[in-house]
Amino acid sequence: MTTIPAARRRRNTLLGWSFLLPNFIGFALLTMVPVVLLFYYAFTSWDMFGGSEWTGLDNFQQMVRDASFRTALGNTLYYTVFHIPLTLLAALGLALLLNKRLRGVAFFRTVAFFPYITSIVAVAQVWNMLFSPGYGPINAVLRAVGVDNPPGWTTSADWSMPAVIVVGTWREMGYFMLIFLAGLQTVPGELYEAARVDGANAWQRLRAVTLPCLRPTTFFVIVMLTINSFKVFDLILVMTNGGPGQSTLVLAQYIYRKGFEENQFGYASAVSVVLFGICFLVTVVQFLVNRRREA
Amino acid sequence: MNRSITAVLGAATVLSLALTGCSSGDDGAGADGKTTLTLAGWSLATTPEFKLLADGFHQKNPDVTVELKEYDPKNYDTQMIADLAAGKAPDIYVQKTLKNFYTYQSGKQLLDVSDVAAGLKSANGLSSYQVDGKTFAVPYRGDSWVIYYNKALFDQAKVKYPDGSWTWDDYAAAGKQLTTGLKTAGSKALGIYEHVWQSTLQGFALAQTPGADLASGNFGYLKPYYTRALDLQKAGAQVGLGDATTNNLTYQAQFGKQQAAMMTMGTWYIATLLSQQKSGDADTFEWGIAPAPQADKSTTGTAATPVTFADPTGLGINPKIDKGEIDAAKAFLSYAAGPDAAKALAAIGITPANTDAAADTIFAVKGVPTDAVAKFAFTKHDTKPENPVGKYTAPLQNILNDLHTAVLSGSKDIDAAIAEAQDRAKNEVLNK
Fold first, then answer.
1. What 3 state SS string does B190-242 have?
2. Which CATH superfamily is domain B32-143+310-373+376-382 in?
């Protein structure tokens, strides 16, 4: 057992702090303070120019009566429920496919990752043109294969959300594929060998070896996907701007509208608090479920 | 070692203080009697009016320099509100639309400029900036919506030019006639292009329907306008909203590249069209303007005053301006809203708020149509605000924008959409 002299211990502590501090100050000023203030503003009628009155639970009572809030919440859940499993499956599928030794695998990995680093505005514009009901290639193909009444995609209230989900999945699958690929490298080769010796086929090896070994990765991916889905904003803003009507209005955009377009920052903060609460709750549940499975 | 950590931290603090100090540096009236004012603007490369006003004022007042601060046109108000709240906004800023004037005025972000207003002889739209007998901004541009039409395409389709006698039904009928005529002549152009904005229908409906009131939360007045637009979309006489949004169509290209024979648009497009025809971004063809179509015959014809809409564009003063610069800023406002600036603006095709002083100038600009109908359309109109100033204007317009996209995309029929918008207005805005 070694004891560290007090002076050196203090020096080490200070040294540690000096490394932490630059990042921590930035985090505290630019993230922590606004987040804490948000909880305060949620109970006021702040208008950004200093006029801020304590209104207690008014904002939350208004939210209960607010049909648009319910629409936005419903749409957010709609997006989340489809976006998470679709992206998870697509990312895992891609990762398994591109984890093999085959010619040009680096090229295909890059291709799969490309959507994630492409400018969202450009992506949305191109997809919008692909989806264009009258002139877009997607509907041209559908018509060619015999679909008489192809959907209106982003111009139809029923199909706009599916269209956005497709693009959201396409955009994010490459990123999560990369995380799965990293996870796959940690699966010990001898487990596969043992499984093969026991006569397991490819499907059985996937179920009994790959998936259980990937559980920590999968958990991380699901948590990230959940939070990403709940706070989806930029994609929808540039693709449909919440329309047609309110068919793709999601919570993050509703907050933006209330705050930056209608200057009801107090109310917008209250909706943000609710969004935070939902994300928090879902993540906690996921943690608990994951821990029980591991035990 | 400890000392060096302290030194590093100290240096970092000094550095950060110096950096923040730099950004808040403000140069106001100097000791030499020279004053520098800052003015907000957007898209400075393609919007010459701000530099024109700044230079024109400096020429008359050599001691005052006006510096421009550029903003993003799409997010102008969002950025301006943030800058005002942070105390970083320029001395003089533009009221780009009336939608946010209430926010600025009620948020105490505009200086009282009643004395400037009292000195103005003619300024269309001034009353929109008056609250409780005080004036908080003065208009320097006074656009209004008119019909733009392509004479070549009209000739090709053998349809008579608009002459100021049109109601909306005449406009729709002409649009269909043009579309068939152009098709027969082998042209791909459509009769009408209406841009994706809610104002193309709602601005006219609100301005022209007797008794229509945005703040009442009753939106029944929209129905005839939407019924007509849906019919035109269905008949193929104009591009549908869905195709226009998914393909990101611009009205400048639709009219300038002769994809449509006519469209309604604000008079700001005159300057753009002139410069795009010169640069080659638009085709070279003969075009004209005519009064906007009317709700009924009572306001058509050159003996009546056509009713149209548009928001004035105004200038206001940031209350955080240095006390010593207020007089100079007010002098700038008087200049910008006055006759000299009006002539200078008109010379580049912009419609100033003071149209009386500018009519001769604008029709002398090469390329501007000079026929009697065009002159009538430019000078005579009853222009109502698109966004009547009020506490609820911004949220109500957001609700009506949802109605706009829902109805024109065919997702909801007009009666259901109006009923829903009225419910939302009542529950979420008016009686919340």
1. EEECCCCCCHHHHHHHHHHCCCCCHHHCCCHHHHHHHHHHHHHHHCCCECCHH
2. Periplasmic binding protein-like II (3.40.190.10)
The length of chain A is 295
Residue from the list B85, B395, B405 with its beta carbon closest to the beta carbon of A243: B405
User: Domain residue spans in chain B?
Assistant: 32-143+310-373+376-382, 145-309+392-430
Interface contact A66, partner B, CB < 8 A: yes
A93 has a pLDDT exceeding 50: yes
What residues 148-187 of chain B have any CB closer than 8 A to a CB of chain A?
none
pTM (2 decimals)?
A: 0.85
Cβ within 8 Å, pair A156-B410: yes
Confidence of residue B32 (pLDDT cuts 50, 70, 90): low
> What are the pLDDT digits (tens) for B376-429?
998 888 999 999 998 899 899 999 999 999 999 988 999 999 999 999 999 888
Per-residue pLDDT of B406-421, as tens digits, reads 999 988 999 999 999 9
Q: Which domains does chain A have, with CATH numbers?
A: 40-294 (1.10.3720.10)
Q: Do B242 and A157 touch (CB under 8 A)?
A: no
Helices then strands, counting H and E runs in chain B, come out as 18, 13
Optimal mutation site among A246, A256, A267, interface B, most CBs of chain B within 10 A: A246
Contact A245 B411 (CB under 8 A): yes
Among the partner-chain residues A11, A49, A241, the one whose CB lies closest to the CB of B108 is A49
Among A41-55, B7-21, B38-52, B388-402, which stretch is predicted with the lowest mean pLDDT?
Answer: B7-21
Under 8 Å CB pairs connecting chains A and B tally to 122
Distance of CA A256 to the CA centre of its chain: 18
For B75-121, what is each residue's pLDDT tens digit? 899 899 989 988 999 999 999 989 889 989 988 999 999 999 998 87
Chain B positions in Cβ-Cβ contact with residue A260 (cut-off 8 Å): 78, 81
B145-309+392-430 adopts what CATH topology?
Answer: D-Maltodextrin-Binding Protein; domain 2 (3.40.190)
Contacts of B161 by beta carbon, 8 Å cutoff, 6+ apart? B149, B151, B154, B288, B290, B373
> Which chain A residues are within 8 Å of B78, Cβ to Cβ?
260-261
Q: pLDDT tens across B238-263, in order?
A: 999 988 988 889 999 999 999 999 99
Q: Which of A8, A263, A267 should be substituted to probe chain B, the one whose Cβ sees the most B Cβ atoms within 10 Å?
A: A263
Which amino acid, A194? A
Which chain B residue's Cα is nearest to A157?
Answer: B411
Cβ distance of A157 and B428 shorter than 8 Å = no
Q: How many CB atoms lie within 10 A of CB B205?
A: 22
pLDDT recorded at residue B196: 93
DSSP state of A44: B
Contact indicator for B126, B267 with CB cutoff of 8 Å? no
Other beta carbons within 10 angstroms of residue B231's beta carbon come to 14
Q: Measure the CA angle with vertex A46, ends A45 and A52; round to 5°.
A: 85
Instruction: Determine contact: B8 vs chain A, CB below 8 A.
Output: yes
A 6-35: CB under 8 A from B: 11, 14-15, 18, 21-22
Min CA distance, A128 vs chain B (Å)?
5
